[in-house]
Amino acid sequence: MAGLWRAHAVRGRVVAVTGSVGKTTAKELIAAMLRTQSRTHMSLGSVNSSEWLARAMLGIRPKHRFAVLEVSAGGYPGQMREVAPFVRPDVAVIVALARTHTTVFTSLDGAAEEKAYLLDSLSPGGVAVLNGDDSRVAALATRARAKGHRVVSFGTTPGLDFRGLDATARWPERLSFTLEHEGRQMAVVTQLVGTHWLPSVLAALATAVTCGVRVEEAIEAVRYVAPSPSRLQPVQLPGGAVMLRDDFNGSVDTLERALDVLRTARVDRRVLMITDFTDFRANFHHRYRHLARLVPGTADHVVFIGEHAGYAERRLLEVGFPAAAITVAEDLREAAHFATEHLREGDLALIRGQMIHHVSRIFLDQVGEVRCWKSTCTLRKTCDRCPNLTSPS
Predict the structure, then answer these.
(1) 139 and 244 in a common domain
(2) Which site among 16, 195, 218, 326 is 20 to 30 Å from 374 CA-CA?
(3) In the structure, how many helices (H) and strands (E) does the chain have?
């Protein structure tokens, strides 16, 4: 049905956004920029399974001049080959590749090949917007051009169509940088936390300008786009501390970028609250040894949560981290109690965990009642609107 709708009812320009990381933020930015020109349809949140992508396609109406859809390839091998033909985008955006969905793709080369199916399904005369800093993504330009498509590049490398320079984002400052495009340099200011969002913003700017938005208008639209929920989303706690909710993607690559934000923050105290992480291809012993190497110089206090918290504490003590600066919490409820009792004004607390742990409940317990304290939950959504949040677990 979605394929038929795309072929016979969709009159607007369809933009499809994919990548291992940063695609939801890029999608939100692109939609904000395109809305400065005309009515724009957008897939909701991070719902990007085959079924929900088809539903998003069926939501496009004749009044929409643009449609921006997030396309995932991480559910199972061949998913992109299945969905790309009915999306048949006019503009295909590949933001970046990273170590995510490693149970589906055993290598980044395999992930790149899967993403390439989106380029193969571009409509005639389509445009591929590619990350020129990512060697695997940049290599797909040859594939796109061979099929007659135009390629627009972005990144920090000299010679790219949209180049970001001098990116800074030291908390409490947000990401800002200089955009170099067609011989001009323009200042870009965002609400995003961390310089690692630069590819998403550049991808959005490149896409919007490709679709006819003036670069000045696209830059202005960026100012008003807030961080996506649970992706380094800063929230104020009643006691004055700031919590960075970063619990949607639990991969090691996103963990390392989040820790960079914590490490460089200008605050009184930096607190890390973490259960575990994914996509490291090792058991929990190796994961916590890796984490112990990352923490010194990054956090002033660490709260380990869950069944392996004691083991994580021992590994951190081995690298010389002070015992008084480590808290072991048996579960999320205990971690939430720590946040209530010990976080204070001047603190910046980063909460991280695997998606199944739903560590967002640490924050939600600070601002309301949480009665669901399951140790794991397979629902792939944040807890904010979950009907079970205030029901007994």
Answers:
(1) no
(2) 326
(3) 14, 15
Asked, for residue 277, whether it belongs to a domain, the answer is yes
Burial 108-117 (b: 16+ CB within 10 A, else e): beebbbbbbb
The CATH number linked to 95 is 3.40.1190.10
User: Per-residue pLDDT tens for 217-260?
Assistant: 999 999 999 999 899 999 999 999 999 999 888 888 899 999 99
Residues 6+ apart with CB under 8 A from 200: 22, 23, 25, 26, 29, 95, 192
What's the CATH code of the domain at 270?
Answer: 3.90.190.20
DSSP reduced 3-state for 185: strand
Examine the pLDDT at 392 and tell me if it is beyond 70. Answer: no
136 shares its domain with 242: no
Amino acid (one-letter) located at 57: M
Domain shared by 152 and 247, yes or no: no
pLDDT surpassing 80 at residue 140: yes
Where among 189, 222, 255 does a domain terminate? 222
Do 80 and 137 fall into the same domain?
Answer: yes
Segments of 232-268 assigned E as strands: 233-236, 242-245
Per-residue pLDDT tens digits for 57-77? 999 999 999 999 999 865 567
pLDDT band at 348 (very low <50, low <70, confident <90, very high): very high
Residue 312 falls inside a structural domain: yes
Q: What is the pLDDT of residues 188-205, one digit of tens each?
A: 999 999 999 999 999 999
Q: Which residues are CB-neighbours of 224 under 8 A, at least 6 positions away?
A: 32, 191
Find how far residue 282's CA is from the centre of its chain. Answer: 23
Consecutive H or E run containing 10: none
Which regions of the chain does DSSP assign to beta strands (E)?
A: 13-18, 40-42, 66-70, 91-94, 127-131, 150-155, 162-168, 176-181, 184-189, 233-236, 242-245, 269-274, 301-305, 326-329, 347-352
CB 275 within 8 A of CB 305: yes
Q: What is the dihedral of CA 221, 222, 226, 230, to 10 degrees?
A: 140
Same domain, 215 and 360: no
| Residue 24 lies in domain | 2-222
Q: What is the pTM of this model?
A: 0.93
